[in-house]
Automatic annotation (TrEMBL):
Protein name per its UniProtKB record: TILB protein
Species this protein is from: Chaetops frenatus (Rufous rock-jumper)
Coiled coil (residue ranges): none
Gene3D superfamilies per record: Ribonuclease Inhibitor
The entry's keywords: Leucine-rich repeat, Repeat
PROSITE patterns: LRR (PS51450)
Family annotation (InterPro entries): Leu-rich_rpt, LRR_dom_sf
């Protein structure tokens, strides 16, 4: 028998009646995937044949799983909008980051990230960490080959630490909607620290950006009588 599922998210799916089961399609409200019986329970049920089938499937899927976890050969990776900074998964997330030794393009947008300073991405050329909670350049991972770095909508208040990227091939930097953007002579300060930079916040380097930051001189008047 065939029944339409009543729940809207599953209205285009169907439920086929399973033999020796009393559940009907019109009773199914929220399909769930549940963990199967343990090996001990199957043994006491005298259903070892099910266990053997399960082990065979596990063996055949082992190689596929290994390929899925082959982070060392990953060249491009998008893990955006996963809330990876949450305590529930941050440690596993950092474990994966440490294995990205060949990644060249990495997107980690909107993940509540605060500090990745212990991570090194030796081949990363493009890193997008927009909409996170970074407060300093010192909290970014080690990215010696970086060319394009996007940090929009974080909470970076000062340009302290930006000179660490002076000896990298960084060409494009986005700092839009960070507090440091409102710093006096912001563009001149960035380009003076990063002379190889070509584009800042989507705007190419302009002649006025090359002038050194203004130096304030303080004078003290002395009156001799």
């Amino acid at each position: 028998f065939f029944f339409q599922l009543p729940s809207d998210p599953f209205r285009y799916l169907g439920w086929w009646e399973v033999e020796e089961q009393s559940v009907r399609g019109n009773q199914l409200r929220c399909p769930r995937v549940r963990e199967g019986p343990s090996e001990e329970e199957l043994f006491f049920r005298k259903e070892e044949h099910t266990l053997r089938k399960r082990k065979q499937v596990t063996d055949t899927e082992k190689w596929e799983k290994r390929l899925q976890e082959n982070w060392e050969n990953c060249a491009e990776l998008n893990l955006s909008f996963q809330d990876l900074g949450d305590l529930y998964q941050v440690e596993n997330f950092k474990r994966i980051l440490r294995r990205l030794i060949r990644v060249e393009k990495l997107w980690l947008v909107d993940n509540s990230l605060t500090d990745l300073s212990a991570i090194r991405l030796p081949r990363c050329r493009e890193l997008n960490v927009n909409q996170n909670h970074f407060t300093s350049f010192k909290q970014l991972p080690k990215i010696p080959q970086i060319q394009h770095l996007s940090l929009a909508e974080n909470n970076i208040t000062t340009l302290s630490g930006i000179s660490d990227f002076r000896h990298t091939p960084l060409e494009s930097l986005i700092l839009k909607r960070n507090p440091c953007e409102f710093q006096e002579r912001y563009r001149q300060l960035v380009f003076s620290n990063l002379p190889n930079l070509k584009v800042l916040d989507g705007i190419p380097k302009l002649p006025e950006d090359c002038s050194p930051p203004a130096v304030r001189f303080f004078y003290r008047m002395c009156t001799i009588l």
